[in-house]
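Title: Prediction job returns without error message
Component: structure pipeline
Severity: low
Priority: P3
Assignee: unassigned

Description:
Job completed but the reporter wants confirmation the result is attached to the right record. Sequence as submitted:
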Amino acid sequence: MTTIRKIARKSTILAAASALPLALSGCAMGGPIPDSSAPITQSEAQQGAEYHPQLLAEFGGRMTGPQAAYVEQVGQNIAVESGLANARTDFTVSLVNSPINNAFAIPGGYVYTTRQLVTLMNNEAELAAVLGHEVGHVAARHSQRRQQRAQRNSLLGAAGAILSGVLLGNNPLGDTLSRGFLQGSQLLTLSYSRSQELEADTLGIQYLDSAGYDPKAMSTVLRSLALQNQLDAQLQGRGDATLPEWASTHPDPASRVQSALQKAQGLGDGITNRDTFLTRIDGLTYGDDPDQGVIEGQRFIHPDLRLTFTAPDGYYMVNSTTAVGINGQTGQAQFTLAPYNGNLENYVRSVFAKIGGEQQQLAPQSIQRTTVNGLPAAYGTARVNNGQTQVDLVVFAYEFSDDRAYHFQAVTPAGRSNVFGSLFNSMRRISQNEAAGVIPRVLDVYTVKAGDTVSELARRMAYDRGQVERFRVLNGLTADQQLQVGQKVKLVVRGQ
């Protein structure tokens, strides 16, 4: 969650987001596969130019500097292999400041990868593979197929179905509540179908081969992403490796690893440029950017906003540029903000009204005032019928100044809202010393010396648990793979 100043600028973006998925998302469609080498049209270029700044804002902004320039160079080189355009400069490739593992593209030659996904890669060929995969979605016009289907089906209905499986198990949310809990980035990046993912993999492998890269890089980067998903599930206490993040457009990489490897068989070996890649990404921020707040175990702390709160046991958090999600088996909550005019009761009512939208008038049964760790607070609950079930929607707001308030909006099965009691009561201000103590994690590329072992290097990782597992996944090392003298590896350490 970014700073209050940046969040305020996103209010107009979120208002427009409901129109964007029709052009940007992917879903299976019948009919013939379009020509994947047809040039970018003028209308596609105009469409991409319109949505580009909105996507940048949703995903933390476009990064600059030598690392971003390197990603842009590799992306443009692989994108031109698609035949969508003859000039590298016809493609806009952006490294975005997001702590989630994601990449995406929109019509018009606009391609994006998060810095977090780049840190998971182990060579330049893998970077080209990911960006080539996204170019493949554009070349195959997958977004347009989704747009055609959206004319016959409710996008929010599909979003509600996604939420139902992730958030409340057998207590799915209706469309109205789904709209209130989906962030713009979720709407922009709903999942592609499996067939479209495989098609984009195939095109990406073709681009790798024609550019002289090792075509097996598609399978190795998919393997790393699958292993990272499994590790995230393990560390977060989830029983599976699904990834219910706000912007997960590629939720099933494990099933595509062998397919990608088979498609690469018989093609040239190509280059990987491992050492060059690792040298160029050295020092890249890893995980949360303190400007957007950081998650440390069960605790979220935002040094700029000077606040912190703690998720309940058994719940895990996902930080995005506009909200912090708190997810668990019994419910979901989000921490975010809305315009504030100095009246907390009106603030709570306005949040309910926004979640309900035009189709359903939502209002709390009553609004209670309280104080939480010295902060004036107000909260209300509404019970909502959802088919044959009921859910409780809670809005819990805090006043930080005369013109600044924040709130949690939480949804649980009816009668279970008390699971978030500890969360609501954990909100507090932090001191300047606490804020100054928030130091980002960064990549440190290290050259292995004689006597170095996995366990010894893993102890340098800036984490309290899972150090060996994190080190192996980060460097694409199998459980029995040992280090070689002179080999470059990635460590995650505290920055300056």
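Comment from assignee: result matches the submitted record. Residues 441 and 495 are 6 Å apart (CA to CA).
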